[in-house]
Design goal:
Layout: E1 6-10, H1 17-33, E2 41-45, H2 48-61, E3 64-67, H3 84-89, E4 94-97, H4 100-105, H5 110-122, E5 126-131, H6 135-139, H7 143-154, E6 164-168, H8 182-196, E7 208-211, H9 216-223, E8 230-233, H10 240-248
Parallel strand pairs: 1-2, 1-8, 2-3, 3-4, 4-5, 5-6, 6-7, 7-8
Bound molecules: 1,3-dihydroxyacetonephosphate.
Length: about 250
């Protein structure tokens, strides 16, 4: 049986406290009024500053709450960093690790991502482990090989369907309005699923999200692809009606 989808919003470096609270409340109201309820789990990943203040509302509405990054160490002299345990302490359920913006702008290696994912698991958070190819890698015709290698090098020990989610985000599709074809998404998710076999607990049950320019207009098509078990949504997660419309495509 396919896993229950997860629709997660990555707010990136957006939203004030007032805006974020309004957005979560709007989603909570939409969920309360919906009949039937969308057949998916919903999570939001606001910036660090909003995690604690939004924690209670997310819990009330049954939304997951995720950080966008964490440090690999549990504590120490790491000015500006936040430990996975600190996220768990204020009510987070998830943390994104290895987002391409962290990999490129902060030069995070697969080894760094693996250590962060391991820290997330140790803190009993669900790690949302991101992988994806660049445009030139896609053009090389080796996208699947490259993404699978990235995944295997970033995979922490002890990952299972219960504590980890993979997010496939082609770098060239992020914030560009461009998406891979259904055939490209299907081939990549199939390759990721195959690569998980023997490497994680319950590989068939591990959710593999698609991310990169997911919008209300293309969500249904992308989410209906085999082995696509949800979405990691950037820009469209900042507008409650759009994010809700994406969640609502899960019937
Ligand atoms: O990076 C993303 C989610 O993590 C995708 O961003 P967009 O949905 O804005 O393309």
């Amino acid at each position: 049986m396919a896993p229950r989808p997860l629709i997660a919003g990555n707010w990136k470096m957006h939203m004030t406290l007032v805006e974020g609270a309004k957005l979560v409340d709007a989603l909570g109201m939409a969920l309360a009024e919906a009949t039937p309820k969308p057949a998916c789990d919903i999570a939001v990943c606001p910036p660090f500053t909003l995690l604690a203040p939004l924690s209670e509302a997310c819990q009330k509405y049954g939304f997951g709450l995720g950080g966008q990054d964490c440090h690999a160490e549990a504590k120490g002299a790491f000015t500006g960093d936040v430990a996975a345990g600190m996220l768990a302490d204020i009510g987070c359920t998830h943390v994104i690790v290895g987002h391409s913006e962290r990999r490129s702008l902060h030069e995070e290696s697969n080894a760094d991502v693996k250590a962060k994912a391991a820290a997330a698991l140790a803190a009993r958070l669900t790690a949302i482990l991101c992988v994806g190819e660049t445009e030139s890698e896609r053009d090389s015709g080796k996208a699947e090989e490259i993404v699978v290698a990235q995944l295997l090098a970033s995979l922490p020990d002890g990952a299972t369907a219960a504590n980890m989610v993979v997010a496939y985000e082609p770098v060239w599709a992020i914030g560009t309005g461009r998406t891979p074809t259904v055939a490209q998404v299907a081939a990549m998710h199939k390759a990721i699923r195959a690569a998980l076999d023997g490497k994680v607990g319950d590989p068939a049950g591990m959710r593999i999200l698609y991310g990169g320019s997911v919008k209300p207009g293309n969500a249904k098509e992308l989410l209906s692809v085999e082995n696509v078990d949800g979405a990691l949504v950037g820009g469209a997660s900042l507008v409650s009606a759009d994010f809700w419309a994406i969640c609502s495509t899960c019937a």
